[in-house]
Amino acid sequence: KITAQNSDAVVEEVVLEPGDCIVAMDYLMEKESLLLGSSAGCLLLYNVEEKTTEVVGRLEGGVNTIVSSPDGALLSVTTGLGQLLVITQDWEVLFEASLDPHVCFLY
Q: What's this model's pTM, rounded to 2 decimal places?
């Protein structure tokens, strides 16, 4: 269970579905918040100072990875359906592409 606060300042409980779990996260310095992604596709924003959680999105196929750009202005999210999303910290999707499952990147 995760406590969430919506835009009307009403506190709600966010309950992940059975079998759902947090699989990715990244710290957003400007928002002083942790962005969490679940295996079922829930995107949660946890504000560290206020200790509140907000559901900011849901992605079909689940979340695989969350990474912020070096300057923190953009986020990249990959999904279980092989989609790459580039989004702003205001949750606007700037770019979406299908990833080729046969291409492997080595770092």
A: 0.79
Could you give the CA distance from residue 87 to residue 91 in angstroms, rounded to a whole number? Answer: 6
What gap in Å lies between CA 21 and CA 43, rounded to an integer? Answer: 11
Q: Which of 53, 51, 59 is nearest to 6 (CA)?
A: 53
**β-bridge pairing 2-5 and 63-68:** unpaired
Distance CA(62)–CA(68), nearest Å, equals 18
**Whole-angstrom distance, CA of residue 97 vs CA of residue 100:** 10
pLDDT in tens, 68-106: 999 989 999 999 999 999 999 899 999 999 987 666 555
Q: Which residue has the tokens 């947090």?
A: 22
For residue 50, the Cα-to-chain-centroid distance in whole angstroms is: 19
Strands 42-47 and 74-79, how do they pair? unpaired
**Mean pLDDT across the chain, nearest whole number?**
84
